[in-house]
Amino acid sequence: MPFPADGAPPMAGERAGERPGPAREVSVPAVVRASAMLRLLSTAPAPLGVNQIARELDIIPSTCLHILRALTAEGLVAVDPATKRYRLGLEILTLAKAALRSSIADQAQPYLDEIVRKFMVTAFAVSISEPEHYVVMAKSNSPHAIRLQVDLGSRFPALVSATGRCVAAYSGLPPRALKAQFDRLRWHRAPSFEEWQTQVEAVRTQGYAVDDGNYINGIYIAAAPILGPEGEFRHAIVALCIKAGWEEAQLRGLGEMVRVSAAEVAEGLRLSVQAAKK
Hints:
The chain folds into two domains: about 30-95, Arc Repressor Mutant, subunit A (Orthogonal Bundle); about 100-270, Beta-Lactamase (2-Layer Sandwich). It is globular, with a radius of gyration of 20 Å. Helices cover about 40% and strands about 20% of the residues. α5 (about 105-120) runs antiparallel to α9 (about 250-270) and α6 (about 160-170) crosses α8 (about 195-205). The two termini are about 35 Å apart. By secondary structure, the chain is of the alpha+beta class. The chain has nine helices and nine strands. The strands form two sheets. A six-stranded antiparallel β-sheet has the order 6-5-4-9-8-7, sandwiched between helices. It has helices at about 30-45, 50-55, 60-75, 90-100, 105-120, 160-170, 175-180, 195-205, 250-270, and strands spanning about 50, 75-80, 85-90, 120-130, 135-140, 155, 210, 220-225, 235-240.
């Protein structure tokens, strides 16, 4: 079972789990458009033509073609000469491997595998990729035939799910700024902002956060933060499962193992563990 980025399919132009918000100011439109093309191609089930890409991203076709040709020349995009359709190029793999070196991926993998071995859940590690999003950097899947699948490179709004509560706990943002982002999120069963704030505050004392069916119906998610030198959110260790059949003591045990794993990974990365230690 794939892990959806949202309780409902995102509309065109939306990022997973997020309602459309005000457009961000940009200084290099061509770079922003090129990035949008790469993301679109990464999620497309089949290669796309110029007109389809231009329509999806609301770009003039001639401008779209110009950018695609530049990306093709760099190897980031490949084109089928027969169909004139575009897909991601193999140079993306080179960049991805370089990005993963010295990242949380290698350090976290043994701990993710151990969480899965002990609890038969899906476990993954995420890193903040930009102020309002985090990305999946490493994963370990449950061996069960029916399981929740999380893809490497998946991006999520920073405040969504259990990880979002960890992000908020160490964001340093005032309540008004947090609420502005919170109101743009999409949930299966949204908590009130006041209830969510209480859960955010609990992260600092408990060492991990929980999302009990708020983000996705019937899915229990536990996440523990790893902080940077200034006490800012950098990474998280996350585990999720279909809640049916679990006892409360088992769920607490899962959360505790996620917390301890985050502490161990933090020490390996020589980052702050104040959020992960009791």
